[in-house]
Amino acid sequence: MERKTRVRFAPSPTGPLHMGGVRTALYNYLFAKQRGGDFIIRIEDTDSQRFVPGAEKYIIEALNWCGIVPDEGVDAEGNVVETASERHPHAPYRQSQRKPIYRKYAEELVANGFAYYAFDTAEELGAKRAEMEAAGQTFIYNQTTRLGLSNSLSMPEAEWKALLETRTDWTIRFKMPENRIVKMDDLIRGHVEVNTDTLDDKVLWKRADELPTYHLANIVDDHLMEITEVIRGEEWLPSLPLHYLLYEAFGWTDSQPRFAHLSLLLKPDGKGKLSKRDGDRLGFPVFPLKWVNAEGEVSRGYREDGYFPEAFVNLLAMLGWNPGNDQEIFSLEELVGAFSLERVVKSGARFNADKAKWYNKEYLRTKSVEELTSLYIPVLEEKGLQIVDCPACALTAGSAMTVTGADFENKIFSRQYVERIVALIQERATFVADFWDIASYLFIAPTSFVEKDAAKFWKEENYTLALQAADFILNFNGEFTKESLEGPLEEYIRGNKWPMGKVMNCLRLALVGASSGLGIADIVTLIGKEEFAKRIEFIKATL
After folding, report:
1. From the CB of residue 360, how many other CB atoms can be counted at a distance below 10 Å?
2. Which residues, 6+ apart, have CB-to-CB distance to 295 below 8 Å?
3. Where in the chain is the domain with CATH 3.40.50.620?
């Protein structure tokens, strides 16, 4: 009978989650959801020396921000589950809390002749390595060297049993078979064969902290948690022979999961693995969320940089996978339907920071004006502006608000005013924060003017005409809307045979402080005649 699909993402809490790790989680999630299966979170904190406080919480928060919500292993409050329940039957999901399980299995391997006790100190191994290198040889702890080292295979039984009682620094190593071809299959890379003579006897369990290494822990936990596919990074590909052999040694080959090893995320130039240093150097984040380390060093995050989670997820999905057509924009639900390991590439995926921005721009374009306004209001409030939902209330409180909802003197603006601005500039922005850079002049009058623009356009032969056009606007008796004003204003300028571009750029300079910005009719009908007149008078007095 076909087993229910069960996959896991098993990060190590040794620091912030790299975007490559998020991609691994995403591919696992998509694979499971497409098959009606379960996506499990398990925290592999067996590396006690590299444990970083706060990293576990960061990992869970980052996945939640991306919408990659686990079916098992994490509760509704974002805590790793420690007590078994119907939904979380395999608790605890933190490996440090599963210590007793691993020793039992490690000892079972020893008892059955697949592993042995090793008592070598780091100093002894270092000396042996140096000795062999001096002789032009490579040191590998395997069948060629193990009998000359300190372990239960090279010692009398009474001696190594005594050391088990008196020493606390011993380990259990896997006994790699001699001259055997391990035949393996990878869902992405195909068939692979490796001779065991090229492999070493890996440590499986350490007496010092009574914790397993990754090799033992992941095999045991994947078996106990009924994992059907292991989708992980290619850095684990060299360990695949050992993992195959461990399943065999335990007698679990019938329930062994299928393996898939994902390619690396590469630097923008394609030369090597993408790292935080690349992001710092080139000006983009490599982590989903901001991270502050113990020394106070801040690492940027996609969330804090203004990326939408949907854009970030879409970006990651396309880094190493393609749908087989030209579609580039996918919702998470669409990705579930389209994803397949068959279309995951074997080669590394080069990161492109400009493409990341493109994705965000595309998603920003799809957002409603109401949603973007809600996101923009905190930015405006940080600039010292007050945004009110009730213009009438503001007027009652003494605000001198225009009909469009703007009080420039008191820096009070209605939500409806902000929505009108967002609707006008949405297509121009990549991030919500860009709205301020694009159109701050719709909230605060310019107090200075771009020097090169002023020199180019604010010349007497131009501004005398522009000031007459300004009078036309101020005396316009029609409905004061863009649709009503724009045509008559342009007809007035053309009727007088004035240079349209120069006149408009003079007016825009007065309104914006530069020659670039929205159309004149858009601006003046938003800010109102009174504010328009003030800005005309200011530029006249200044330039």
Report:
1. 24
2. none
3. 6-93+264-354
Beta bridge partners of 182: 194
How wide is the angle at C-alpha 264 spanned by C-alphas 259 and 270, nearest 5°? 150
CB 349 within 8 A of CB 274: no
| DSSP-based three-state secondary structure for 266 | strand
Task: Report the distance separating Cα 524 and Cα 510, nearest Å.
Answer: 11
Quick count: other Cβ atoms within 10 Å of Cβ 84? 12
Q: What is the CATH number of domain 97-262?
A: 3.90.800.10
Report the alpha-carbon distance of residue 284 to residue 300 in Å, rounded.
8
Q: Which of helix, strand or coil describes residue 256?
A: coil
Token pair recorded at residue 27: 């591919």
Location of each CATH 3.90.800.10 domain in the chain: 97-262
Residue 97 CA to residue 287 CA, distance in Å, equals: 28
CA distance 278 to 361: 23
Query: pTM to 2 decimals?
Result: 0.93
Q: What distance in Å separates the CA atoms of residue 530 and residue 64, rounded to the nearest whole number?
A: 48
Residues of the chain with CATH 1.10.10.350: 451-542
CA dihedral 498, 502, 507, 510 (to 10 degrees): -140
What whole-number distance in Å separates Cα of residue 163 and Cα of residue 207?
A: 12
The CATH number for 451-542, chosen from 3.40.190.150, 1.10.10.350, 3.30.230.10, 1.20.1050.10, is 1.10.10.350
- Token match 């933190």: residue? 94
CATH T-level assignment (fold) for domain 6-93+264-354: Rossmann fold (3.40.50)
Burial classification of residue 409, based on how many CB atoms lie within 10 Å of its CB (0-12 exposed, 13-18 middle, 19 or more buried): exposed
Q: How far apart are CA 416 and CA 405, in angstroms?
A: 7
> Which positions are annotated as active-site residues?
276
pLDDT (tens, 9 = 90+) of the chain, 543 residues, equals 689 999 999 999 999 999 999 999 999 999 999 999 999 999 999 887 888 999 999 999 999 999 999 999 999 999 999 999 999 999 999 999 999 999 999 999 999 999 999 999 999 999 999 999 999 999 999 999 999 999 999 999 999 999 999 999 999 999 999 999 999 999 999 999 999 999 999 999 999 999 999 999 999 999 999 999 999 999 999 999 999 999 999 999 999 999 999 999 999 998 899 998 888 888 999 999 999 998 999 999 999 999 999 999 999 999 999 999 999 999 999 999 999 999 999 999 999 999 999 999 999 999 999 999 999 999 999 999 999 998 888 888 788 888 899 999 999 999 999 999 999 999 999 999 999 999 999 999 999 999 999 999 999 999 999 999 999 999 999 999 999 999 999 999 999 999 999 999 999 999 999 999 999 999 999 999 999 999 999 999 999
